[in-house]
Amino acid sequence: MAPISATFLLFFSTASISFSLILSATIIEDLNNLQPPPDFNTTLTNNCLHNPSLRYCNATPFNLPEIFKSTIVASHLCNESKNPNCVESFPKIDLRSRPKIAPLYLSFNFFWKYCPLTILTIDLSNNSLKGSFPSDIFHCSQIQALDLSHNDLSEDVPIQNFSLLTNLTFLNLSYNHFSESKISDSQFFKRFNSSSLLHSGLLPDHRKFRIKAILLLLGFPILIILTVVCLCWLCFWRPDFLPRVLQSKHKFTPSMLKAATNGFSKKNLVNKNEGVGIYKGLLRDGTEVRIEMYWEQVSRNNRRKFIEECKVLVELCHKNLVQVLGWCDNRRLRSIIIEWVDETNIEMWLSRSAPPWKQRVKVLMGILEGMCYLHEEWPEVGYDLKTSSILLYEDQEPLISRFKVGDQNSSSKKIYRFGVLMLEMITNRRPWEEFEGGEAGFVEWIRMYYLDNLENVIDERMKKTGHVFDQAAASIELGLKCMDLSNGRQPSLDQIFNNVSRIHNTCMASASPNLKRLHGHRGEGH
Ligand SMILES: *[C@@H]1O[C@H](CO)[C@@H](O)[C@H](O)[C@H]1NC(C)=O
Ligand SMILES: *[C@@H]1O[C@H](CO)[C@@H](O)[C@H](O)[C@H]1NC(C)=O
Ligand SMILES: *[C@@H]1O[C@H](CO)[C@@H](O)[C@H](O)[C@H]1NC(C)=O
Ligand SMILES: *[C@@H]1O[C@H](CO)[C@@H](O)[C@H](O)[C@H]1NC(C)=O
Ligand SMILES: *[C@@H]1O[C@H](CO)[C@@H](O)[C@H](O)[C@H]1NC(C)=O
Ligand SMILES: *[C@@H]1O[C@H](CO)[C@@H](O)[C@H](O)[C@H]1NC(C)=O
Ligand SMILES: *[C@@H]1O[C@H](CO)[C@@H](O)[C@H](O)[C@H]1NC(C)=O
C-alpha cells in the first residue's frame, strides 16, 4: 500500500496546494471556476514516472482539464466521506444515507474514469438511487467492498463485469428492484451468496416463493378434489359426457333422460297413462329414442327384477324386434329406453291404407322371423302380438315392440295369438269390437263363411285376383289351425314358418312371368 499512498499524496499535494483556500465553495462552483495550474502537465508526468499504474497514465497526451476536474471531485468526495486525512489517503467513499449528494457524485464520469487507486470501499447504500446499475464503479477495479443496498436501482445487473473486481470480498445489492435475470455465473456465486442479494429482485423472492408454495399446496388438493367431484358428477349424473369407452353401454341416469326430453317437457310427452309416461327424446349422440317412464314406487325386489329383465331385453337383436337401448333405475323412477320408431302400428296400417295382399304376407313373414328368433334364442322372452302393438317402419318391416321377460305362456298360446293376428290381417276385423263373444265369435264367423263366401270374409278393399283368393284361403285355414287348441292339431312354429314362406315366395314370384307354373300349386292349402 505504501507506494500507492505516496502517489496519492503526490497527486494531491501539487494539485491541492494551489486551491486549498477556495475549496469551501460548492463543488459545482469549483468545477466551473478552477483551472489546472500551469505546471499540471509536469506534475502528472512526474507522477506517472513514479507510479505508472495511475489510471491517467495510460491515456497520453493527458486530458489536462478532465484530470484536473477529477482531482477537485476527489478532494470534495474524500472530505464528504470523512476519510481521516484526505491529503494522505482516500480509502473509502462513504455516501451512506446521503440521498442529496450521492447521485451528484455518481454523475461525474471523469472522476470514476480516473478512480483513485487508494479507494478500497464504496458505500452508496440507502440513497434511493434510481436507474440502472452504476457501471462507472467498475472503473475502480481495486475495491474490496461495495454496498449498494437500500436503493431503487432497477434493470439488469452486469454480473459478468464483477469478474473485473478481483479483490472484491464484500458485496451488498440487497433491497433494490433489479430484474430477475438468471444468475448462471457460478463464479459469482462462489464469491457471494444470497445474503448479498436479499430482496434485490435478482433472486426469487422467498415470500413470493412461499405464497406460490402455499398456493400450490392448497391448489393441488383442491384441483384433485374438483377433478374427483367432476368425475363423480359425470359418472353418476351425465355419463354420456364421458368418453365412449368409459360409458356403461345400457345404463341411463335420470339427468340424461331429463336432458334428452328438455326436462320431461310436455312437448316431448307422447302418451301418458296411470304411472307410465312415454316421451320422445334425443340423446347426446343424436339418437332419437322412446322413453317409457314408470313413476310408481316399487319394492327393492321388484327393482332387481326390473333390472334383470332389462339386461335381457338389451341383448335382443333382430330386424323385426324393436331395439331396447337401455334402462334407468332410480329410487324415484324406472325407465326403459327404446329406439324411436314413428308410431304406425298394424291396426292403423290396415284400416288406413288397405294394403295389398303381397304386403300383408310380407309383414306376416317378418313377424314370424322375429318370433322364430325369440323362440330359438330367447325362449323365456314373451311378446305381444296385438295389431296395435306391432309397429311398422318405412319398408313395411314389422317390429314386435312389447316383451315380457320370464313369460309363462306356452308356445301353444303364442301360436294361438299368431293365428288371431293372421286372421285379423286377412279380414281387417277386430274380434273384440265387432263380434259378440270376441275371438270365439270371430273364429265362428270365419268358419261359417270362408268356404262358401270367401269374398265376404277377406278384407273387401283388397284387390282380389285368382291367386290371392287361393292364398288367402290357405292362410285362413292356417290361421284357424293355429287357433285350434284341441289335441295335436296346432301346427308348430316351424310348420307355420314354412307355410307362410311358401305363400310369400309365391307372392314375390307372381309379379314375374313364371305365374303360370306356380299356379299349378293352386289349392295346396285345401
Ligand atoms: C471538509 O470537511 C470539513 C468539515 O467536516 C470542512 O470544514 C472543510 O471545509 C471541508 N473541506 C473541503 C475541502 O471541502
Ligand atoms: C505535456 O508535456 C508533454 C511532455 O512532457 C508534451 O508532449 C505535451 O504536449 C504536454 N501537454 C500539454 C497539454 O501541454
Ligand atoms: C436511510 O436514510 C434515512 C435518511 O435518509 C434514515 O432515516 C434511515 O435511518 C436510513 N436507514 C438505514 C437502514 O440506514
Ligand atoms: C488486489 O490486491 C493485490 C494485493 O493487495 C494487488 O496486488 C492487486 O493489484 C489488486 N488488484 C487490483 C485489480 O487492483
Ligand atoms: C461490462 O462488460 C461488458 C462485456 O461483458 C463490456 O462490454 C463493458 O464495457 C463492461 N463495463 C465496464 C464498465 O467495464
Ligand atoms: C454468506 O457469506 C458471508 C461471507 O461473505 C458469510 O458470513 C455468511 O454466513 C454467508 N451466508 C450464507 C447463508 O451462506
Ligand atoms: C446487506 O444488507 C442487508 C440490509 O441492510 C442485510 O440484511 C444483509 O445482511 C447485508 N448483506 C451482507 C452480505 O452483509
From TrEMBL:
The keyword Endoplasmic reticulum does not apply. Its main location: membrane. It comes from the Eukaryota. The keyword Signal applies. InterPro entries: Kinase-like_dom_sf, Leu-rich_rpt, LRR_dom_sf, Prot_kinase_dom, Ser-Thr/Tyr_kinase_cat_dom. This is Protein kinase domain-containing protein. The chain crosses the membrane at residues 213-236. GO terms for cellular component: membrane. Keywords: Glycoprotein, Leucine-rich repeat, Membrane, Repeat, Signal, Transmembrane, Transmembrane helix. It comes from Ilex paraguariensis (yerba mate). It is found in: Membrane. Residues 264-526 form the Protein kinase domain. Pfam families: LRR_1, PK_Tyr_Ser-Thr. Residues 1-24 form the signal peptide. SUPFAM superfamilies: L domain-like, Protein kinase-like (PK-like).
